[in-house]
Specification:
It is built from ten helices and eight strands. The protein has about 270 residues and is an alpha+beta fold. It has one domain: Thiolase/Chalcone synthase (Peroxisomal Thiolase, Chain A, domain 1), CATH 3.40.47. About 45% of the residues are buried. The model has no long low-confidence stretch (mean pLDDT about 90).
C-alpha cells in the first residue's frame, strides 16, 4: 500500500543549516556546506514564564514547526501534529539523573514537567493555540522514519480533502546529551526538521510524496559532512528527502526505518 501526501512547507535547523531557505541552495548543490554552531532562540509565541522553562529541544522543535507553517501559509489550529525524537530533552534527563544520584533527591516541578516525552506537544499547544490531536513517539535511530510513516498514515485516515483536518505537521528533533551520557549516546549537535503534509495539492505545494515500506538500502549523501550529520543524528535521517525536494527532480528516495525495513519515497515536484 502506498501513502500519498503533498509537502507544503518545510522547517529546518541544524549546524550550518540555519533554516530551509538557506539550506535549499546547499542541498541543491549550488552552495558549499559549512558546519557552524547552532543558535536557536526561545519561541516568542510562548508566554514569558513558559519561555524561561524551555530547553534546547523545545526551542528546536517549535522553531522548525513555526517555520514550516509560515512557509505553507497554514493555520496550526487546523493541523494535527506528530512529534518524534530519539531522546527529547537530554539536558533535563541528565540533570534529573544527577539529582537522583545525589544526597538531595528532590526533583523540581519544572524539571519533572519537562521530563515527559510529550512536553513539545504541550508547549506547541500553548504557543500556537492548536487544540488538534498531537502524537508523540520515539523509535531510537529510526525516529524520523517512524514519524513520517505515522504522519502520512494519519493523513490517509483522517485528512482527506474536504475534512475538518487540514493536514498533519511532522516535527522531528534531537539534541546532544551532556557527559557522561554523551559517551554512551554520542549525538554531535541539535537538529530539527518539520514537514507540513497536506491531503491535496495547493499553490504552496513543493512536492508530491508517495511512501511505502521497502527492504532497499537507505540512501546516503554525497557530501561527506552532510552524510556525517545524516548518520549521527536520527532527526537528520530526513536529509535525503529534503535534498530531493531541493533539487526539484522526480526521483526515488530510500530512508532509514526499523531494519530490515526501510521507507521508499517517490518524490514528484509540484513547481
Amino acid at each position: 500500500m502506498r501513502l500519498l501526501s503533498y509537502l507544503d512547507g518545510i522547517g529546518l535547523v541544524g549546524p550550518g543549516l540555519d533554516n530551509w531557505p538557506a539550506a535549499h541552495s546547499i542541498l541543491a548543490g549550488h552552495a558549499a556546506y559549512e558546519s557552524r554552531p547552532l543558535v536557536v532562540a526561545a519561541p516568542a509565541a510562548l508566554p514569558p514564564a513558559e519561555r524561561r522553562r524551555t530547553g534546547l529541544a523545545i526551542k528546536v522543535a517549535l522553531a522548525v514547526a513555526f517555520d514550516a507553517l509560515a512557509a505553507a501559509q497554514l493555520d496550526a489550529r487546523q493541523l494535527a501534529t506528530v512529534f518524534t525524537s530519539s531522546g527529547a530533552d537530554n539536558d533535563n534527563c541528565d540533570a534529573i539523573c544527577k539529582t537522583l544520584a545525589s544526597d538531595d533527591r528532590s526533583i523540581s516541578p519544572t524539571r519533572f514537567h519537562n521530563s515527559v516525552h510529550n512536553a513539545p506537544g504541550g508547549y506547541w499547544g500553548i504557543a500556537s493555540g492548536a487544540m488538534t490531536p498531537a502524537t508523540v513517539l520515539c523509535a531510537h535511530d529510526a525516529s524520523f522514519g517512524a514519524g513520517l510513516l505515522e504522519a502520512m498514515t494519519q493523513l490517509a485516515v483522517d485528512g482527506s480533502p474536504g475534512s475538518e483536518r487540514g493536514g498533519t505537521l511532522l516535527v522531528a528533533y534531537d539534541m546532544p546529551y551532556p557527559e557522561p551520557l554523551h559517551a554512551k549516546r554520542p549525538l554531535p549537535a541539535a537538529f530539527g526538521i518539520a514537514l507540513a503534509l497536506m491531503p491535496a495539492r495547493s499553490a504552496q505545494s513543493l512536492a508530491r510524496i508517495e511512501l511505502e515500506l521497502s527492504d532497499a538500502a537507505p540512501d546516503t549523501l554525497s557530501d561527506p559532512a552532510l552524510e556525517t550529520l545524516r548518520r549521527s543524528i536520527p532527526a537528520a535521517r530526513g536529509l535525503p528527502l529534503l535534498q530531493a525536494v531541493a533539487r526539484g527532480d522526480a526521483c526515488r528516495v530510500v530512508l532509514d526505518y526499523l531494519a530490515p525495513l526501510s521507507l521508499l519515497v517517490q518524490v514528484g515536484p509540484c513547481r
